TrEMBL record:
Protein's name according to its UniProt entry: L-ornithine N(5)-monooxygenase
Keyword NADP tagged: yes
EC id: 1.14.13.195
Classification via Pfam families: Lys_Orn_oxgnase
Amino acid sequence: MQVHDLIGIGFGPSNVALAIALEEQNHGGQALSTVFLEKQPAFSWHQDMLLDNAHMQISFLKDLATLRNPSSRFTFINYLHEKGRLQDFINLKTFFPSRHEFHDYLAWAASHFEDRCAYGEEVVEVVPEVQNGQVALLRVRSRTRDGELRERLGRNLVVGVGGTPNIPEVFAPLRGSPRVFHSSRYLRSISEHAQPRRIAVIGAGQSSAELFMDLHGRYPSTRIDLIMRGHAIRPSDNSPFVNEVFNAEFVDHVYHRPDHERDAMLRSYWHANYSAPDLAIIETIFNVCYEQRVRGEERHRILRRHEVLGARDLGGSIRLELQDLDAGPEASHANQSNEYDLVVLGTGYERRQHRDLLASLAPWVGEIAVDRNYRVSTPAEFRPGIFLQGACESSHGLSDTLLSVTAVRTGEITAALSPAPLGNVPPAPLGNHGPSRRNVAYAARI
Ligand SMILES: Cc1cc2nc3c(=O)[nH]c(=O)nc-3n(C[C@H](O)[C@H](O)[C@H](O)COP(=O)(O)OP(=O)(O)OC[C@H]3O[C@@H](n4cnc5c(N)ncnc54)[C@H](O)[C@@H]3O)c2cc1C
């Protein structure tokens, strides 16, 4: 069996950017044998949320390459140039392309690496290859769409699998119901419903706000409740000083803080990324609700400070038991029970798939800890390098799950694979940038 220098799991923006960095930094002309395994049948970036009117929440300059190598041919600007739209894009006068256009850019970039991506293969397990008491290689097992199991051997692994839909416990029994679905399945699921009368959207982040507006435009007479725990839909703070937390240099700052300081920092900036839609869409939602009041047709409701206590499938509808968190327990309206034709979950993502995939390596890896270059800390007798993309928010900061540092991070990972990645991977560096005890402890949550 061929031994690959590098196996990438997932071929989303993170690993596409890595493919670009590997090509451009290319280890002094020594081409690595690389393969990326992607479970989707073709490149696709959050396809079920490619809503009309949805725009990027990040500048196009934070594309797959610019911040690492502005002269790369894989920049968004070069994409526009090759597509013949550069001047027209300039006339748009925006830093924030539509998500449709950015998807097209990402797919264009990915298309240059078809020869090293196996689409339609889901990685199910990574197991150690032990030789003479050492873990020499990693065996990566994947399943094709036809159910066939495949195996590959690699000297290095980069896990870039993104998030997994977060389904709150209360909705767990309704998994599989066509009437309850997560935003990650939105477009394919909503197309199955012709004219729902009443819809609940759960959550108050960017996705929920976009879902609310999309549903409002899609169904002119449907009633929509946006159900949220918070007091108000709060905007993301993208003012320039706050935005510095998404700068590449800020990763150093976050990574080298003591645990308690890093924790506090993540908490204090949490709203810069989570549960915080753009101000423009909040204003649009407010305007829609206001106009409905003017016309005396209050179809939609923003149910703030409401908790979903229970959810039952009644066959033809879903019943939600709601608690008004601001009403005292004695208040007659503290609990209400509403029926909906559809419930759409804008409840975000969790990032733990890498732990499941690497579970067989636990005797060597223990609690996963990463060094500054995203390399998982392993003992000397474990030779392969394992790198994580997008799973290091707790150690590297809020930018980790976004596109903000992708270009720079892949340059760092590519450099960390040098100078001796091929067949003789040194143990995880424990020098200045190595995982201190502090980070090992902290990394329990990675
Ligand atoms: C609707 C939406 C809009 C967003 N907009 C922005 C934005 O404007 N700006 C921003 O900075 N961030 C945005 N984000 C955040 C998002 O995380 C990043 O844009 C980006 O997708 C991260 O890239 P990734 O490659 O790390 O993860 P992903 O894009 O999630 O890619 C992971 C890939 O791995 C594949 N995969 C997963 N498990 C396996 C497996 N076991 N085997 C094989 N393949 C697997 C998946 O199919 C997927 O293709 C958005 C997220 C969402 C959901």
